[in-house]
Amino acid sequence: MLLLCPSCRVPHKSEAMSQTHRIILFSLWTLISGYAEDRVRDLMSRYPLIDGHNDLALQLRKLYNNRLNHINVNNMSNIATDITRLHAGHVQAQMFAVYVMCGAQDKDAVRLTLEQIDVLRRMCTEYKDFELVTSLRQKIACMLSIEGGHSIDSSLPALRMFYQLGVRSMSLTHTCNTPWAESSSKHHTFYQKQNNSLTSFGKAVVEEMNRLGMIIDLSHTSWGTAEAVLNHSKAPVIFSHSSSYAVCNNDRNVPDRLLKKLKNNRGLIMVNLHTDFISCKKEANISHVADHFDHIKKVIGADSIGIGSDFEGAVRFPKGLQDVSKYPALIGELLRRNWTEQELADILRQNFIRIFDEVEKMRDQLVWERPSEVQISMEEVKNPCRLVLRPPSSSCSSPNRSQLCTLLALVLLLSNLILLQ
Ligand SMILES: *[C@@H]1O[C@H](CO)[C@@H](O)[C@H](O)[C@H]1NC(C)=O
Ligand SMILES: *[C@@H]1O[C@H](CO)[C@@H](O)[C@H](O)[C@H]1NC(C)=O
Ligand SMILES: *[C@@H]1O[C@H](CO)[C@@H](O)[C@H](O)[C@H]1NC(C)=O
Ligand SMILES: *[C@@H]1O[C@H](CO)[C@@H](O)[C@H](O)[C@H]1NC(C)=O
Ligand SMILES: *[C@@H]1O[C@H](CO)[C@@H](O)[C@H](O)[C@H]1NC(C)=O
Ligand SMILES: *[C@@H]1O[C@H](CO)[C@@H](O)[C@H](O)[C@H]1NC(C)=O
Ligand SMILES: [Zn+2]
């Protein structure tokens, strides 16, 4: 390598000799690397990438307040994602995260979630390069995945309506616990559960997602929740953007013991490229990323691995993998590490297609099950914003409410009396 660098000092001997040496080596190197690049390009045009996680919609909200009319998604050089570079990176399908901050839990999470779905649905229909898809029968392009169970406000009907709007995956938590599942993060202790990382309502959410044919995503959940879901789900699940805990011990990553359970479940881990989860340091390069792929392959095989970049959702990415046009560099590194074309085709897209297919097959098997009417109890949600449209007697607790209820009861009594007459 030193010899190839034009500005490097070359040892004396015969100057002419080393010059020829350099030229020959340089041509050889360009030939080989040119060949490797062609091989990656050829492979990726036959097996274009399905990426498991991109937070573009979060940036659209933060930077532009979702005003799509004022921007050009073809070219957004201030962030890591735009249509031009998605093409350059051979990305053919992207799961776009529908994410709202945990601060919205028990407040306006549902409205904000709808607004994020709206901006993604608009983007994916207004730009001719995108196509919004909801099943594998169609050409794949934009897929919608909710990031964080707080978005459904503990309501299975809300979950079903999000499915109707095209959402095909949901991670059960973000950094906050929900009343029914636990986060890997220790930032928010609200709704912390002891020895019950998936409550009975949580199990109902899992069952309903199985019935709907929605992919269950365990990235961001605690390991306890992940294990409980792996025990309970009838369909394969994914970690849409998590890496290996054995390589970098960050709680967002997955330990080998859960990887093995994931393999039994026929599920998928889509490796997160965020530097902090890759090297556990502030810096990383493509070798560090490839180490995660090698390790996970060693533990559970290449047919359980995918890629879930987390572009736009994280701030630091490894050298050489800074934006959505750079995936070929990663595939090139795995080729150098002797990954076979079949294994690369699998991690680029075939594995994801298999999972989605199996999730939909399970949905088809469950076709005779009726929509779940399980409801969470008021004690479990502790949400003062919930309006309860039930007979007054069942829900009066606060003094204010009891006054209101007495009043309502009186009105009802009076109107009944009037009607009876
Ligand atoms: C993208 O935008 C930048 C600056 O906004 C401009 O310099 C560049 O030429 C544009 N590229 C394309 C392909 O339109
Ligand atoms: C939870 O489990 C731990 C260890 O198994 C035990 O020490 C603790 O008492 C349990 N807590 C509850 C609330 O059951
Ligand atoms: C999952 O199942 C295993 C084996 O049946 C059991 O040992 C474990 O306690 C279960 N874990 C949870 C969280 O349900
Ligand atoms: C990545 O960094 C490590 C040191 O942390 C180094 O050994 C390795 O060669 C680097 N890989 C690349 C592709 O630059
Ligand atoms: C890849 O395979 C070749 C030929 O079998 C071998 O020489 C080389 O050491 C292998 N490289 C790695 C990184 O395993
Ligand atoms: C309702 O409750 C709040 C706080 O508990 C109190 O400040 C307010 O006066 C109450 N209103 C009525 C009508 O009792
Ligand atoms: Zn995330």
TrEMBL record:
<keyword id="KW-0479">Metal-binding</keyword>
<keyword id="KW-0645">Protease</keyword>
<keyword id="KW-0482">Metalloprotease</keyword>
<keyword id="KW-0224">Dipeptidase</keyword>
<protein>
    <recommendedName>
        <fullName>Dipeptidase</fullName>
        <ecNumber>3.4.13.19</ecNumber>
    </recommendedName>
</protein>
<dbReference type="GO" id="GO:0006508">
    <property type="term" value="P:proteolysis"/>
</dbReference>
<keyword id="KW-0325">Glycoprotein</keyword>
<keyword id="KW-0449">Lipoprotein</keyword>
<keyword id="KW-0472">Membrane</keyword>
<dbReference type="InterPro" id="IPR032466">
    <property type="entry name" value="Metal_Hydrolase"/>
</dbReference>
<dbReference type="Pfam" id="PF01244">
    <property type="entry name" value="Peptidase_M19"/>
</dbReference>
<keyword id="KW-0378">Hydrolase</keyword>
<keyword id="KW-0862">Zinc</keyword>
<dbReference type="GO" id="GO:0098552">
    <property type="term" value="C:side of membrane"/>
</dbReference>
<keyword id="KW-0336">GPI-anchor</keyword>
<keyword id="KW-1015">Disulfide bond</keyword>
<comment type="subunit">
    <text>Homodimer; disulfide-linked.</text>
</comment>
<dbReference type="InterPro" id="IPR000180">
    <property type="entry name" value="Dipep_AS"/>
</dbReference>
<dbReference type="GO" id="GO:0070573">
    <property type="term" value="F:metallodipeptidase activity"/>
</dbReference>
<comment type="similarity">
    <text>Belongs to the metallo-dependent hydrolases superfamily. Peptidase M19 family.</text>
</comment>
<dbReference type="InterPro" id="IPR008257">
    <property type="entry name" value="Pept_M19"/>
</dbReference>
<dbReference type="GO" id="GO:0046872">
    <property type="term" value="F:metal ion binding"/>
</dbReference>
